[in-house]
Automatic annotation (TrEMBL):
Alphabetized Pfam families for the sequence: Abhydrolase_2 (PF02230)
GO cellular component: cytoplasm
EC number: 3.1.2.22
Enzyme class: hydrolase
Any Gene Ontology biological process: fatty acid metabolic process
Protein name (Swiss-Prot/TrEMBL): Acyl-protein thioesterase 1
MF-aspect GO terms: carboxylic ester hydrolase activity; palmitoyl-(protein) hydrolase activity
Homology family: Belongs to the AB hydrolase superfamily. AB hydrolase 2 family.
Gene3D superfamilies per record: alpha/beta hydrolase
Keyword Lipid metabolism: yes
Keyword Iron-sulfur assigned: no
Keywords from the UniProt entry: Fatty acid metabolism, Hydrolase, Lipid metabolism, Serine esterase
Function: Hydrolyzes fatty acids from S-acylated cysteine residues in proteins with a strong preference for palmitoylated G-alpha proteins over other acyl substrates. Mediates the deacylation of G-alpha proteins such as GPA1 in vivo, but has weak or no activity toward palmitoylated Ras proteins. Has weak lysophospholipase activity in vitro; however such activity may not exist in vivo.
Length: 279
C-alpha cells in the first residue's frame, strides 16, 4: 500500500523567473512548513537577509512526512520511517517507510526537473537528520545527476548492510543499496509507484550521479548523531565514487532543526548553493 503524504509546502520565487529549485526534507517529528518557517526567520551573516531573499529566483519545496496518531488521540508530526536510532538496523516496517519515502522524494525530484524543462542541474536535494537519510537514499536511486546535495546532521541509511560489500566497486554497492531497498520493482516509465507518478524527465546530458557536488554539515556535539557519523557517511560516499564533497563540522549541540539559528552553518549552506547554482 502506497503511503499518502501531506501536501508539500512551497516557497515561490519572489522574481518573475524561476531559475532553480531546492528540495529539503525535515527532521524527525517535524513538518515541511515548520522547516520553512525556521528558514524564513534565519539570516545569512553577509547580507542579513533570509536564505529565501538571498536566492530570489529559487523555488523551495518542503515535503512533509506522514503525521502519527498517539494513544491519546493526539496528532504529532511524523517520521519518514521508524528508526530506533540513527544508523540502526531497520525492521520490516521501517524498511517499508524508508522505501516509500525515497520513492516519494524521487517523484518530487522528477516533477521539479520537469518544471525546469529538464534542467536537472538546477535542482538541489537535501535533508536534515532523518530527512537526510531519506534524501541520501533518493540520491543513490536517482536516474541521473542533480545540481547538488546538502546533508545536515543526518546519516547514511542501511550503512551496516552496505558495509558488508568490502572490496566491491561503486556500482556494485549502489546496485546492492537499490536492491536492498527493494526499489528495483518500482522502476518503469516514471520509476515511482502510485497514482501521482509523473513522466520521467530527461536529465541534462547523461552523467554519473556520483559527480553530484555534496555538502555535509554537522554540529560536533550533537549527541543524537554521534561523533563517528560524519566520518562514516563521508567514507561510504567516497566508496560510492563521490569526489566533489565537502564535510564541515561546527561547534555546538543544538538538536533537530535548531541548527538554523547557527549563522555559520547556514552561511555554509548559502555558500554551497551559490557555488552549484551559479548565484
Amino acid at each position: 500500500m502506497v503511503q499518502l503524504f501531506p501536501p508539500r509546502h512551497v516557497y515561490f520565487p519572489s522574481t518573475p523567473s524561476h531559475s532553480c529549485t531546492v528540495i529539503l526534507l525535515h527532521d524527525i517529528h517535524s513538518t515541511g512548513p515548520e522547516l520553512a518557517a525556521r528558514l524564513a526567520m534565519s539570516q545569512i551573516q553577509s547580507t542579513e537577509a533570509s536564505i529565501f531573499e538571498h536566492f530570489p529566483s529559487c523555488r523551495w519545496v518542503f515535503p512533509s512526512a506522514q503525521p502519527r496518531q498517539t494513544d491519546t488521540c493526539q496528532t504529532i508530526p511524523g517520521s519518514w520511517f521508524e528508526s530506533p536510532s540513527p544508523g540502526g538496523r531497520l525492521g520490516p516496517a521501517a524498511m517499508d517507510g524508508l522505501r516509500e519515502s525515497v520513492a516519494y522524494t524521487l517523484r518530487i525530484v522528477d516533477e521539479e526537473i520537469n518544471r525546469l524543462a529538464g534542467r536537472s542541474r538546477r535542482v538541489v536535494l537535501g535533508g536534515l537528520g532523518q530527512g537526510m537519510a531519506v534524501a541520501v537514499g533518493a540520491l543513490l536511486c536517482a536516474r541521473g545527476r542533480v545540481g547538488g546535495f546538502i546533508g545536515l546532521n543526518g546519516w547514511f541509511p542501511l550503512l551496516e548492510e552496505m558495509g558488508r560489500y568490502e572490496g566491491a566497486d561503486d556500482e556494485e554497492i549502489r546496485q546492492a543499496f537499490v536492491d536492498h531497498l527493494g526499489l528495483e520493482l518500482l522502476t518503469g516509465t516514471s520509476g515511482i509507484p502510485g497514482p501521482a507518478a509523473t513522466k520521467a524527465p530527461s536529465y541534462e546530458l547523461p552523467d554519473s550521479t556520483c559527480k553530484t557536488p555534496i555538502l555535509l554539515s554537522y554540529l560536533e556535539a550533537d549527541a543524537r548523531v554521534g561523533l563517528r557519523t560524519p566520518t562514516l557517511v563521508h567514507d561510504m560516499l567516497v566508496r560510492l565514487g563521490y569526489a566533489r564533497m565537502v564535510c564541515r563540522l561546527f561547534p555546538g549541540s543544538r538538536p533537530g532543526e535548531r541548527w538554523l539559528k547557527d549563522p555559520e552553518q547556514l552561511d555554509a549552506v548559502a555558500g554551497f548553493l551559490a557555488e552549484v547554482l551559479g548565484h
